[in-house]
Amino acid sequence: MTEPSVEIKQSENKEWEPKIIAFLCNWCSYAGADLAGVSRIQYPPNIRIVRVPCSGRINAYFIIKSLTDGWDGVLVSGCHPGDCHYISGNLVARRRFAILKELLEFFGIEPGRVNFMWASAAEGERFAVLVRKATEIVKKLGPNTKFEKKW
Amino acid sequence: MTEKLLKKDDIGKLYSELEKEYKFYAPTKVQGNIAFKQISNAEEIELEYLNSKVPPKDVLFPQKEIIFEYRYEGKEVIIEERKDLDDKLLIFGVRPCDAYSFKLLEDFFASGDFQDDVFLKKRENATIIGIGCNSPRQSCFCTSVGGHPFQKESTDIFLSDLGDNYLVEAISEKGENLVKKLSWLVDIKKGDVEKSKELAKLAEDSFTTKFNFDLVTKVLDENFEHPVWQEISESCIGCSSCTFLCPTCTCFDVIDENDEYNNRGRRIRIWDTCQSCLYTLETSGHNPRPAKIQRCRNRIMHKFSYYPSNYDCLGCVGCGRCITACPVNNELRLIIDKILEIEEKSGEKVSA
Amino acid sequence: MGLETEIKDIETNLREIAKGLLKEKKVDVIIGYMEGTLPMLSQPIIIDNEEDVDKLLWNNLCYVNLAKYLVPRVPRFVDPEKGNLKVGVVSKGCVGRALIHLASENKINLDEITIIGIPCNGVVNRQRIEMEIGEKEILEVSVLGNNVIVKGKDFEKEFPFDEYMNDLCKGCKIRKPPLISKYPDLCVGECEEYSSIVDEFTDIEEYDSKTPEEKWKYITDALSVCTRCYACREACPMCYCNLCFVDQNKPIWFGKTTDLPDVIVYHLIRAMHMAGRCVACGACSLVCPMGIDLNKINRKLEKIVKERFGFTSGLDPDAKPPMVDFKMEDAEEFMLEED
Hints:
Strand content of chain A: 15-25%
Radius of gyration of chain C: 21 Å
Distance between the termini of chain C: 58 Å
Structural class of chain A: alpha/beta
Order of helices and strands of chain C: HEEEEEHEHEEEHEHHHHHH
Number of domains of chain A: 1
Helix content of chain A: 25-40%
CATH topology of chain A: Rossmann fold
Oligomer: heterotrimer
Number of strands of chain A: 4
Structural class of chain C: alpha/beta
Largest sheet of chain C: 5 strands, mixed
Number of helices of chain A: 4
Number of helices of chain C: 10
CATH class of chain A: Alpha Beta
Number of strands of chain C: 10
Strand order of the largest sheet of chain C: 2-1-5-6-10
Distance between the termini of chain A: 47 Å
Strand content of chain C: 5-15%
């Protein structure tokens, strides 16, 4: 693994930074993010975390509402298939995510805005790497203008 | 009443002169359908049209309308009223049925203690240029509701399509002033007015649908609980297409939209429909019209019984949009037939 | 191809079967289609005695998905004393699929219905024809062979039927209602056993190959006229929720206005709710008062569900719909992974 690079941009830089909302499952991914923090592994501050009991709790409404509220990206993270604290929550969620990704692509909404990943409680480094990857993808896509309402 | 001639080639000239002073709305093709939109050049005007999908009430009473906007500054809430209500509007090429619907809409929005300023101000500032129907559709029935394909009363200026020209008749004072301003309009020739009257008579005779709606009102008033409503509402699926395309339907919902991140919000009014099962759902959970038969019945009663009681006139203009829009062909003419049958078999009358 | 004679045969056959069913009291009522009052429409009709079977008709203008009248049951299908009546439903393929899928969702009891199968060869795309004819009144429409003949006061035009049928009908592989071995008495008339459906989805290939910007433009253009009347939702036999997600106010999820973001979101989420449930009947597009054609979305949903989960809705009343099921082996190529 390479040295994690410092991703925090100075505020004078005035470069646009995406705001990404991250729904993390309490038992695996949230603990994984915690581990990253405790191990002092830097990951981009662009994500704002919302803790949910399981990735199976995630409704398509949460993801789409985040996009309409103005978030530039959405990240959903859960336990690896087979390791779900509630046995099959992430498996149910996986099908939903598949449909949502395909439909977003069908509608012409950039599929990179909504990302799904698995990260367990012991994978602090993996969590940081994937968050970095997601942030880069969303940054390339630019601000979320498709759902902007005209006032 | 001033009468002039407008050459069909001069429509562009008319547009460029009027659009300086008015917001010019005309029938134009939008995604394959005719709709009344504000146009940006005269080529977009389509006057040879049957009738628009969405009626021109959309111009004065749009599907989505902002009532006011508000924003927070510290602890203060500042309300910003609409600033565009005093703009002058011109709605060009309205069919007589739709022009008459503006009068019915005015009755509704001006009734009672509360005057709906948002609509009434726009109506006051709107000039209506109507156009007669040379070939009414099979589904039209304006003559049965007291209208006429060349009815001029609800317009400010009335056009009749004579072939190469339009006969221009100023009807109201607003119309007279406007025609005077358009000094380049050509004078009429001998026979033009007669031709227009001839076209009116031809159009009137072409109607295949004729009902006696006074009788309908009477039968409806006496048969609220009649079993015929079961038959009438059987095939209705509650899609509400009829209410969304009706020129006299006025029901609306009011919603607030908040933009918390920017400390602002706005109050919006959107069209609603009595055909939705949530329409009469109360906060207590009680719903006076939970069944489809009641909602179906309500629409017919509203147009042909409640409107006459409240405003002394029928609530329908005979445009026929509900007839062509209904996907299950549960059309108004069949419904009226069934209602009139009650009177014929008068032994079956059942009172409420 | 002699399509007109075939249609007449189908109609005569249908009336015979209907008469037989009512005579032998195998059903209490039959719901089918009858002649409409306007050139391109038909009406649903409910008959309960043999004398009325001649009103039943079958042609390429029979649009409404009759399964809608069973969930919830219209009052005519319920007797205050006997309870649910036995209903015979005149079904083309998609109507049969809808009934069977609703049975798999426990909304219909298959013992209480009889599917009268019809071999459908597609319905005319009414809105497309109206748009092509433009601002001239259509007075008569008939389908003869592969021609849709449209007549007006002073015009007559012909359209090729295989091009001017509903987009969903073009790709339809289930033209007759499916036979269900577990319910041998369920289907009469023309029904077919489907062991597996082969569908290449070539009709949406062209759309799928567009760039995201082109797709966005296509979708926004098509949905720009949406007037939020919810006719599509009311006509769909699968939309039977007591409180639709757009009407929820605790919390308010999405806006109810005609602003483009609100409209896109409504159709996107409704499509999500239709995944694995849509039976491709086209009722949503038929009903739309503004003529919006959503059929591509429905075909895409069928494709996603078939390719990912090997599922086609409406073929087996005991099948578990894909969105309430899961498998360890489900594909997850879309997940974010480390390089």
